[in-house]
Amino acid sequence: MIPRERAYSSRLSSILLVIAATICWSTSGIFINLIIRKSGFSAVGLAFWRDLSTTLALFIGILIINPRLLVVKKKDLPWLISMGAISIGIFHVFWNQAVVMLGASLATVVQCNAPIFVTIMAWFLFGEKITTRKIISIALAAVGTILVSGISSVGDWKIAPIGLLIALGSAITYGSLSLFGKKLSGDYNPWTIMFYIFAFGTLTLFAIQLGKPDPWPAELDFLPLFVGFILVSTILGFGLYTTSLKYLPASVSSITATSEIFFASILAYIFLQERIDLWQIIGSVLIIIGVVLVSLAKDPSIKEY
Questions:
Q1: Which end of the chain has less neighbouring CB within 10 Å, N or C?
Q2: How many CB atoms lie within 10 A of CB 277?
Q3: Rounded to an integer, what distance in angstroms lies between the CA atom of residue 63 and that of residue 146?
């Protein structure tokens, strides 16, 4: 049992890591929209070049800083391969396509229902408790995401079914990041996990495109956006989130990550002129309340947290 004050401090620090990660991730929709407009990449093509560039950057960084971080156990390779293929490769295809079809803010809204999936699976796989606090937090997040989507009446439900299904696929594959990450985070440095999952994600996307990814554009005016996309939305965002999984239950990390919708909506309004109204503001407040609620520990002991 660790001291009460120290447990609270550790938990809140980890919560702040997740929030910092979601701030980085909230820029993703902006970058994707702008990069696709300028480069002509398809959703799958952009996902491939994103993951390949991230893999190379991580590989070079690890070689320079500590090559021993590249060593992993054979028994963990199936987990890393699954995490890379599902949580990175397939997720990025779904996510990019959802942003193109639904817009950055609405795609983020649908994705933010991932905590429901994560909380149930974390209970099944890791024995994490499904508490009243978590249920209320998920309910607030779900209602908040509906409101933030900008749909304030039945007549506004004009969403392409295929776009919604793709966004739901994004939510499920995104949720798997927390589950796989929780399994591996106790044994490896976050940068080790990130390198391998992005490497396997790249191979998955290469296979999906039958070995013929979109060619690199001749015009490079999108390059500053792409560099920001890799450094901020990808390396920094995933690095912070993977680190948080060392100290938080997967369900708590996933619920806290719904704060991304607040930041994504603000950025989409500023940079993409996507609408934001009173209902969206109310929805954002509900999401934030849910995050704050799940962040408060009843019994901050090392056993539970």
A1: N
A2: 13
A3: 45
Among 295, 300, 292, 218, which residue's Cα sits nearest to residue 252? 295
Closest CA to 292 of 263, 258, 256: 256
- Tokens 């910092």, located at residue: 20
Q: What b/e sequence results for 60-95 when a residue is b if at least 16 CB atoms lie within 10 Å of its CB, and e otherwise?
A: eebeeeeeebeebeeebeebbbbbbbbbbbbbbbbb
Looking up tokens 């009243």 gives 132
> What's the chain's Rg over C-alpha atoms?
19
Cβ(121)–Cβ(183) under 8 Å?
A: no
Displacement of CA 11 from its chain's centroid (Å)? 20
One-character DSSP codes across 69-84 = GG---GGGHHHHHHII
Residue with tokens 């149930």: 120
DSSP per residue over 170-194, as a string? HHHHHHHHHHHHHHHHTTS-HHHHH
Asked whether the beta carbons of 180 and 83 are under 8 A apart, the reply is yes
pTM > 0.85: yes or no: no
Distance CA 108, CA 253 (A): 16
List the chain domain ranges. 4-295
Residue 67: band (very low, low, confident or very high) from pLDDT cuts 50, 70, 90: very high
pLDDT bin (cut points 50, 70, 90) of residue 73 is: very high
4, two tokens: 């009460």
Q: Which two tokens stand for residue 79?
A: 């987990």
Higher-pLDDT residue of 197, 132? 197
Q: By the 8 A CB rule, do 92 and 51 touch?
A: yes
Residues found in the chain: 305
